[in-house]
Write a structure and sequence with these properties.
Blueprint: H1 18-26, H2 32-35, H3 39-46, H4 52-60, H5 63-76, H6 87-94, H7 96-116, H8 123-144, H9 151-157, H10 161-169, H11 171-181, H12 188-195, H13 200-210, H14 215-223, H15 234-248, H16 263-267, H17 270-275, H18 281-305
Helix pairs in contact: 1-13, 3-4, 4-6, 5-6, 5-7, 5-18, 7-10, 8-9, 8-15, 8-18, 9-14, 10-11, 10-13, 11-12, 13-14, 14-15
């Protein structure tokens, strides 16, 4: 279900044929951040020899990332007697992994913000949800197997990209979904199919495929609600599902695109059986405890990033 902060009349619009939707998406401009994510910094962060001074020098060329990094490090290490204002020092405190994630998420968020900012929707809350899902997705996959890159993080970050695409390319339909969802108990995806002709999962997958993203990212967007339907990357899609619900766990109000989820719903998700098909319950319990601890720290991180 989806809600907005103010009651609005339902715009009049008719569902579109899938071919029409595909044609509209085909005319969308390709986003540079999705095909080449801060390539200079990415290569440096992945290099075997990483020099803090060189990484800091690249970061300084990006005012947006510089600002976010300093906000993040001072938020996480607020107990320091003197605020950190030096990029090299920030890189040292945050570590390569967090710097790499910030380097990848910053241009993606800024590109997608440009195409969605005209729509009256709580986008800051939405992006905080996406970033939190990305962070927890990586933590979940890291508990299952060694993680070599940030593909899991990007999959979590972009799992709901279909909602952004709907707001940008089909604004009247998006507003209609928001209006119909206000105070309704109906499922968001059901409303989207009724109003537009397909849901945000399929729309996001179509958009990512158009941007030539890897299949693993496309499947995460397409099947993050139903990971058992994924054909090739079920473990990652399952991790995105668990992370997505975890972020919503414990919410008491329906705000923006985020409806509350209960722990019972979270524990019954198909993702658990996909990730732990033959493992002991103790392993699930350990991961759940770790995720709940991470969830407590997320507000500081999210407020600093966006």
């Amino acid at each position: 279900m989806i809600t907005t902060d103010a009651v609005a009349p339902v715009p009049k619009c008719a569902p579109l044929e899938r071919s029409v939707i595909a044609q509209r998406l085909g005319k969308c401009a390709l986003l540079p951040s999705l095909s080449s994510i801060n390539s200079v910094l990415r290569e440096m962060l992945n290099a075997e020899q990483r020099f803090t001074a060189q990484i800091a020098d690249v970061i300084r060329r990006d005012p947006s990332m510089t600002t976010r990094m300093l906000r993040l490090v001072n938020s996480l290490y607020y107990g320091l007697s003197t605020p950190i204002t030096n990029i090299e020092e920030a890189v040292f405190y945050l570590g390569i992994r967090q710097v790499r994630q910030l380097a990848m998420s910053t241009p993606i968020i800024e590109d997608l913000q440009k195409i969605s900012h005209h729509s009256p929707f709580p986008w800051r809350e939405f992006w905080q949800h996406c970033i939190a899902t990305a962070i927890l997705t990586r933590e979940i996959t890291g508990a299952i197997r060694p993680v070599q890159d940030e593909m899991e993080y990007v999959a979590g970050l972009l799992h709901d990209v279909g909602r952004i695409v709907m707001a940008a390319e089909f604004p009247t339909h998006f507003e209609a979904v928001c209006a119909l969802g206000k105070g309704s108990q109906r499922d968001l995806r059901e409303l989207e199919v009724e109003v537009l002709g397909l849901d945000h999962c399929e729309l996001g997958a179509m958009y990512l495929k158009h941007n030539r993203l890897p299949d693993i990212i496309v499947e995460a967007a397409m099947y993050h609600v139903e990971p058992d339907r994924a054909s090739h990357h079920r473990e990652l899609v399952a991790a995105v599902q668990l992370a997505n619900y975890m972020v919503r766990l414990g919410r008491t109000e329906k705000t923006g695109s985020l409806e509350p989820a209960t722990e019972e719903e979270w524990l019954q998700l198909a993702g658990w059986d996909i990730l732990f098909p033959k493992r002991m319950e103790e392993e699930r319990a350990l991961l759940r405890a770790s995720l709940k601890h991470s969830l407590e720290r997320l507000p500081h991180i999210l407020d600093a990033i966006i």
